[in-house]
Fold these 2 entries.
Entry 1:
Amino acid sequence: MGEFFQTYFDFSIMGDNFNAVLEGFWWTIKLSLIGGAFALAWGLILSVIRQLPGKALAPVRWLAIAYIDCLRGIPMLLTLLLIYGGLGTLQSTGTIPEWLGIPEFFGWPSSFWYGVMALTLTYGAYMAEVYRAGIESIPRGQMEAARSLGMSHGQAMRFVIVPQAIRRVIPPLLNDYIALMKDTSLVSVISLAEVVHVGQDVYSTTFNPSALTLGAIMFLIVTLPLARLVDWQIKRQDEKFQRGLA
Amino acid sequence: MSDETVSLSEDVARGETILKVSNLKKSYGKLEVLRDIDLDIKKGEVICVLGPSGSGKSTMLRCLNLLESPTGGTIELKGDIVFDGTKPKNLDDLRRETGMVFQSFNLFPNMSAKENVSIAQVRVRGRKKADADKRSIEQLTKVGLAEKVDEYPDRLSGGQQQRVAIARALAMDPEVMLFDEVTSALDPELVKGVLDVMRELADSGMTMICVTHEIGFAKEVADRVIFMDGGYIVEQGPPKDVLDAPREERTKKFLGLVLDH
């Protein structure tokens, strides 16, 4: 038992590397905040495209559906490696501009921005489905009532449908956000010094995983309250639903 | 959009045609729901539409304000075409002049009774929030809900919700009110309160088209009863003719089934 504890919870290693791990976790937070924000916006755009009305726009809808299905069907690690392996090359041959090929906004490394791209592309697809489910969960009668009162489709969406849908999509969006946050660790494979990468560096010199344990604890400090928040939100909605309100 | 620009054309006098439906057709794929409906609705008239389920009566009502798009025929509102056989024209005018009440109430669950009645006044009619709220309270008082203006729909009974829905439609000052089986989802003891409101509305001269199973209400309030079956208007006329002395076999059979239980 003592050996187990020594292996995973070596406090001297944790203490020595605390600042480095925390710095790595800061990249994790930045990745999840920026990638998450882009994914939220991109997902909304995709879901709107997917629900554009009319026959003429059918090809655009199909494109959106194909995109959503494909990106949900590819492991994010693979998407990330494809971005990382391709953009630099395309930039060097002049096919795409340098800011896209080797992005270094704010002086942050391009591996960070490749990570943001992969998170946005992948989680945008997931979140698009969440938005769609939220809007489709509002009974048809709500749109009909709004239209019969003379509101346009846009007004009905804005004043009647979306305000009701938002409450319903918050818990599943938060769930996706937790998953997104954990998947930021994949960006370690293209050598961004985020928390997992730092932990592994420490491991390779000390042959002790305690720095990784420290990283896990940092994740939990953020994800556990989020998970509770999701549960609380769902419970609140169930109560409302039972009263016929949600 | 303000109150001054509401009317598409001159107001029609009582007894003149307000809605004119010609050769109205509606099908879903191969299924023909409305085959050939001709109907003149006069201002101030109260029409009750009866018929077995699947006869097309609700679909007809929903075509009148173009919640369903007909597949053929024309609809005129006060002499102006609002549906020309293929697509809607002046849809906003039509929707503004027709109020609709649904079987399932369809109140907005995230708004209080007052907000339910106010929102379209503000967003569609362009009324000021304070004016709209004042109007909403008046309208809710008229349907007997003065004490409930700040309640949310989940705190109201079905009958109360339906009366809010009626108030919500009336606050838009429609020319015609469409009622789609508005008492069918209600517990029996709550039906009367809603029918009383509709009766009063009819007495006040509102033009009304009611799809209903309430034969007693039709007998008492309707100026004209329409019996539909299989997507056609089978028979129409004053209630004493259609309900007490129907000419068509199908009407007789239906009324026999409805009244015998």
Entry 2:
Amino acid sequence: MMKRQNAKVFTILALIVLSILVYLAQNKLDPYQIRILNLGAIYVTLGVSLNLIYGFTGQFSLGHAGFMAIGAYVTALLVLPPYYKEMIFILEPLAWPFTVIHAPFLIALLCSGLMAALAAFLIGLPVLRLKGDYLGIATLGFAEIIRVIANNLPHITNGALGIKGIPEFTNLWWTVGVAVVTIYIIKGLVHSSYGRALMAIRENEIAAEVIGINLTYHKVMSFTISAFFAGVAGGLFACLLTTIDPKAFMFIMTYNILIVLVLGGLGSITGTVIAAFLYNFLLEYLRPIEAGFQIGPIVFPAIPGLRMVTFSVVLLVLIIYKQSGLMGGFEFSWQAFFQFVNKLFTKKKPTEGSTS
Amino acid sequence: MSLSLLLQNIANGLSLGSLYALIAIGYTMVYGILRLINFAHGEIFMLAPYFLYFGFLIFHLPWWVSVVIAIALTSLTGMLTEKIAYRPLRDAPRVSVLISAIGVSFFLQNLAIVVFSGIPKSVHRPKFFTKIFQLGDIRIQSTLFASIGISIIVLSLLIYIVYRTKTGLAMRAISTDIETSRLMGIEVNKAISVTFIIGSALAAVGGILWSQRFPQLFPTMGMIPGLKAFIAAVVGGIGSIPGAMFGGFILGMSEILFVTFFPGSSGYRDAFVFLILILILLFKPDGILGKKVQEKV
Amino acid sequence: MREILNIDNITIKFGGLTAVKNFILKVFPGELIGIIGPNGAGKTTIFNMITGIYKPTVNKIYFQDTDITGMKPDKIAKIGIARTFQNVRLMENLTVIDNVMIGFHLHLQSNLLSAIFKFPGYAREEENIYQKSIELLEKVDLEEYKLEKAGSLPYGQQRKLEIVRALATRPKLLLLDEPAAGMNPQETKELMRFIQEIREDFNLTILLIEHDMRVVMGICERILVLNYGETIAEGNPEEIQHNPEVIKAYLGVEATYA
């Protein structure tokens, strides 16, 4: 059996390797490729955080787009220099505290997370009593309300025009860094007594309550933490796209995250990570299909929409033939990793005493 | 506000409500049987006016013939989505079917972009829908009456099918218990197909009436009406057909009356709809006409 | 001696139906009481009221002189009442050991932060919970299955696991809802011994719903007979077996296997 100490060493080594990879990617790849990787990493944060409330706690939440929106606007308003904000708010002048406050990116991201978490706390207290699809619809409703509010508060959000010219602070260090921290914290939570309580609620709510688990506390806690990371991801998103408007946070956004989660396998963090990158690679590398291309003498004209048609067909095929997700609930651990490596090198020999 | 203006708004609300009701039926029937939120239903709704547009303007068929063909094609599409994308997942986790529905929604929306192009198209409106009635000092377009009238006829037909025919009985049996229904010799697959055909046909009627009221076609036009009709189904009590009708009218009315009484906050109209939804869910989670289900301990 | 549980003449109605009527029960520390009666007599409903899942329509329930009527189930668990369910309710996709460890969660001292970041205080507590869970599993010979999914165990072992999970919450009063259902005679015999054993070891007071008369007559000191939501008899096994009312309403029909 792996010792915990060893696992720690390997984790640190893996982080060093990851840093080198990020360094190389950030410096050697072209901006387009970097952008896809950035999106992938942001989707990791989004997917893993949705996994906490839905995959592990079993509470069907469709509110992620709303929490992202809160995070995106908070970051945008905090990182934009005051003189610039004055310039872009054409519909109505920006309201007071936002005209003067200005914060570095890290602080802005933390504020994004905290504001999203606060919203989740207030929403979660009443709605987390609901179960199943009803909870999904109610949280979807709240996300849409957040979006409508963003549309109607021109002195804070610049209304439907959105906010443009947000500094492009987001790079791979930030997106991958946030993803790693998110995984570390959510994994830490899931593998603790609190995490067991969350999974107990998912498995059997009545039994969980009868053995002393406070449903409200644990559900709201999970929902709030999940929203915190969605908010941070929203902030990263704003400083990646440099332009945000309420339309960017329609419920389609939540569907995308849900797709990543289900393709990766509910309750599997490893699956979510892989699915997040695959999802974005797939979306981007299908682009040539609709841009028009040439195979030998045959020229295919540009057909807008064809990319998403192909994409949805791939999605349908995947979901119909891979019902339990791409990874089938597999979770990465160093122990499993080394067992696998061992098997690779010893596969010639007949296995002895390995049956359990 | 003058009485006549209020009356005009009530007529307006009723007509919008009747459209929501037509679309909501499809959600509620599918949910009742498969426990599936059919996220693709809004796209089914969008297809009908497009089919009509092509039948009438491109193939130069008479308008009423095009309408019939559009409804038939839309129903066929609805039935096929179930066969291809939902049936193979009947025993899968429910969230997989939900993702499949989202996939179908993406597919139809983008197929519409590919086939019909994303450029908005304007709709032909026969005289029947554009006549203006002058009642005292209010002017009402015949679309309003037409959509209310047609909805009532179609919904009565639906009630007849569901509560007075053998197929309807089969559908109701399946929604109570799909396994037992199968054991009792009901052809489950056939009844489910019929459910999708009926639900899609109603959405088609709704879509065509919608395009008479808001005469512009674009591939994403089904998203918001679809979402609101779904909310109507939940407000009325999801799984209940009378509930969906009732919910549709309530939603249409409250939306219009909200704008009438708070014209300054008309931007919050959609938020108001969602607020109603959330309040209903919190205080009467099974909807206004829904059955209360309690888990046995 | 003060009673540990005092059910003071409660009644519960669902719509027009009265499920339990004027139910009175005083339980003293250390007692092992059986509740019997035909299906639908209201036995499980009484458990549901004691554990906070239902609230009596009329009157109150006291646990160690605290009014627990309408208290939330998790609060009731915290002050020392645990139960099992007629149709076993385990966390089926979690491992056997996790099912036991989860029972300790309500007494966890460490806060969320120290649990996430595995501070030394939490690590010690977790280790302690693990050891105690293993000890509990050893009591019912489930230790070797600790890493199996709970849902994959045979039914009889699932019942034992559910009892062990209840014990993990450190209850003073334990409610067992048909613990012997689905067990063969050998398993039933072991179960009876196990119930006696935990009663001694954990200083438990036990209420037991059971259809198997060997269990009820074998280990209960006092028995209540329910029919149509009302108590029709109360007494020691001897008295119950000879009570004409009971024989007529219940045992008369099923005396063949008593």
